[in-house]
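User: hey, got a sec? need Adenine nucleotide translocase lysine methyltransferase folded
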Amino acid sequence: MDDDAPDEALADIKGRQIGGWGVAQIAVGTGLTVYAMWVGILQPGFRKVPLKLQVPYIPASKTQVQNVMTLLRGRKGNLVDLGSGDGRIVLEAHRHGFNPAVGYELNPWLISLARIHAWRLGYHGKVAYLREDLWKVDLTKCKNITVFLAPSVLSLLQEKLHAELPDGALVVAGRFPFPDWEPCRIEGHGVDRAWAYNMQAQKQRLLGKVSNM
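Assistant: Yep! Here you go:
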């Protein structure tokens, strides 16, 4: 479907005269569609996840993906996307030469969707999508990490990243920044903004805080 399709559909609706019954049908139909998507596709991955750690699936926009890749420019080696959703960050990372590029996602439906995207683009077997709890993923050998997660999750995840990632690792967060870290670079504006964090700098900053206590 073309990107302009939703705008064209909206223009078409605006151009028509619809009565109260038509409005009701649209409202009910939209609500049922959203509910059906939640029950059938999104909810299964959340059933065993504590409420504060649940992250609703919101696909990254093209601009958001581009900003993430800009912050990763000049980097190489492996890349891990935590909470990879439909897999678009992993695919773009593979296009930019990151190998292996791996996405970790808890929702089985989203993993299937990501694998379909990879197959359609001819990347089957070249990228990996694994169903695993991000809190159990071993990150000790990861060089590049990307995350599009909620602030409530980032505040806890930064402890795991600090403990496991090597000094040379770079972490890129989209939509929301890590609450207690200082970024080395920022790209984009508003909801499309992305933040890059150098792990060595974060560890040195923490050591400095401890020394001053």
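Quick note: The two ends are 57 Å apart (CA to CA). Let me know if you need anything else on Adenine nucleotide translocase lysine methyltransferase.
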